[in-house]
C-alpha cells in the first residue's frame, strides 16, 4: 500500500517519467498532465488503471512525480510556478489547503457527478474527490494466533490474554487514538471530537509493548516475523503479504475506514485538462475496479466495487460484511484542525 507520508512531507525526489500517449501528445503544457502520488507499486497501478487509458484517447502525455510533498505544493503556489497537476493527498491536508487557497475549487458539475456515480458525499470536498479507500484493521500473525485472535480493539489492548508486541504507525492520523478510545469503551458514534488525554492514558497501559513503524514494508515485516504479532494495519498491505505466502491476516471487526483524495494545486496551467480527467474517472467504474484489483485499494465509487473480483472485494472496506462491522470513517475535518497539536504531543510521548 502507501509509502510513509512523513517521508513524503519531508522531501520529494523529482521523478519525471513521461508515458507516451496514443495520438502523439507533445508533452507541451497544453497536452500533458503531471500526476503526483505517493509512489511505488500503488502509483504504478493507479496510473496504469485510470490515467493512461484516458490519456491514450486524448493524445495526452502523462508525466509523474512522487512522493506527494505538501511543502512543495505550498511553495509552488506561493511562487506562482505550479507544475504539479492531479495530486493524491490526505483529506486533512485537502481540507486545510482548500481553505488556505492552495487548491483549485472543483467545478460544480464534477461535485454533482461524484455524488451521482455513487461516491460517498462525506468523502467529497470543495477542492477534492476521493480516489481510493482502505481500512485500519487489526492484523494478526496467523501462526502465533492459530486459534483465537483479537477481534476488537479492547482485545487488541489486552496483553495478558493476547501477549506480544503491538505495532502502530508512527503518525497521528494513523488510527491509534481512535483505536485506543474504542478499546477504552467509547462508542463509535461518539469518537469525535477525540478525547486525546483519555487516549494517551489508554496507550500508556500498553506502552512497553508498543513498537512503531514508518513504512508499509516495516509493518508487514514486523507482523510476519512475529516481532509484533498484532499490528494496527493498512488492510491492503496485509492481503498482499498473505497472497505472497506470509502467515498474516486481517480482522475486519471495528475497522476504521480511511481514504485519499485527488486535488489540483491552485494555478496549475492545465487545470481544465485535469478536470476533464476527473470527469472521465468518475464515469469509468471499470477503470476504478481495475485499480482496486491491482492495488488492493477500494475504489472511490460503490458502482466500481461491484466490478471487482470477489476474492479481492472481500478484502476491501466497501465489501458489505466489512462495512457493516466497521467502527466508522476517520474524521479528517477533526484532524485538519488538530493534527499539529496532537503530533507534537505524540512525539513527546514517544520520546519519554
UniProtKB/TrEMBL annotation:
- InterPro entries, A to Z: SBP (IPR006059)
Keyword Nucleotide-binding included in the entry's annotation = no
Which is one Pfam family of this protein? SBP_bac_8
Keyword list (alphabetical) reads: Signal
- PROSITE patterns reported for this sequence: PROKAR_LIPOPROTEIN
Q: What residue stretch is flagged as signal peptide?
A: 1-23
Q: What is this protein called?
A: ABC transporter substrate-binding protein
Q: Which organism is it from?
A: Actinomadura geliboluensis
Amino acid at each position: 500500500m502507501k509509502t510513509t507520508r512523513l517521508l513524503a512531507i519531508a522531501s520529494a525526489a523529482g521523478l519525471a517519467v513521461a508515458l507516451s500517449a496514443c495520438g502523439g501528445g507533445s508533452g507541451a503544457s497544453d497536452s500533458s498532465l503531471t500526476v503526483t502520488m505517493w509512489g511505488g507499486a500503488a502509483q504504478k497501478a493507479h496510473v496504469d488503471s485510470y490515467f493512461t487509458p484516458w490519456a491514450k484517447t486524448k493524445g495526452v502525455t502523462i508525466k509523474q512525480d512522487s512522493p506527494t510533498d505538501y511543502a512543495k505544493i505550498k511553495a509552488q503556489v506561493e511562487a506562482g510556478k505550479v507544475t504539479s497537476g492531479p495530486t493524491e493527498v490526505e483529506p486533512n491536508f485537502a481540507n486545510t489547503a482548500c481553505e488556505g487557497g492552495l487548491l483549485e475549487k472543483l467545478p460544480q458539475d464534477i461535485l454533482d457527478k461524484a455524488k451521482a456515480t455513487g461516491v460517498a458525499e462525506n468523502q467529497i470536498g470543495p477542492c477534492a474527490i476521493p480516489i481510493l479507500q482502505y481500512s485500519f484493521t487489526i492484523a494478526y500473525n496467523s501462526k502465533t494466533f492459530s486459534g483465537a485472535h483479537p477481534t476488537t480493539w479492547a482485545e487488541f489492548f489486552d496483553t495478558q490474554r493476547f501477549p506480544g508486541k503491538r505495532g502502530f504507525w508512527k503518525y497521528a492520523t494513523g488510527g491509534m487514538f481512535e483505536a485506543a478510545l474504542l478499546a477504552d469503551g467509547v462508542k463509535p458514534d461518539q469518537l469525535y471530537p477525540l478525547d486525546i488525554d483519555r487516549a494517551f492514558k489508554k496507550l500508556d497501559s500498553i506502552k512497553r509493548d508498543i513498537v512503531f513503524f514508518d513504512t508499509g514494508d516495516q509493518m508487514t515485516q514486523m507482523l510476519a516475523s512475529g516481532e509484533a504479532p498484532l499490528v494496527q494495519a493498512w488492510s491492503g498491505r496485509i492481503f498482499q503479504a498473505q497472497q505472497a505466502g506470509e502467515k498474516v491476516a486481517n480482522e475486519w471487526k471495528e475497522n476504521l475506514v480511511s481514504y485519499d483524495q485527488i486535488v489540483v494545486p491552485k494555478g496549475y496551467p492545465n487545470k481544465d485538462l485535469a478536470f476533464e480527467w476527473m470527469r472521465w474517472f468518475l464515469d469509468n467504474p471499470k477503470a476504478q475496479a481495475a485499480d482496486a484489483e491491482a492495488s488492493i485499494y477500494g475504489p472511490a465509487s460503490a458502482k466500481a466495487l461491484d466490478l471487482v473480483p470477489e476474492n479481492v472485494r472481500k478484502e476491501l472496506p466497501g465489501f458489505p460484511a466489512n462495512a457493516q462491522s466497521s467502527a466508522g470513517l476517520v474524521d479528517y475535518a477533526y484532524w485538519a484542525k488538530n493534527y499539529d497539536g496532537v503530533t507534537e504531543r505524540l512525539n513527546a510521548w514517544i520520546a519519554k
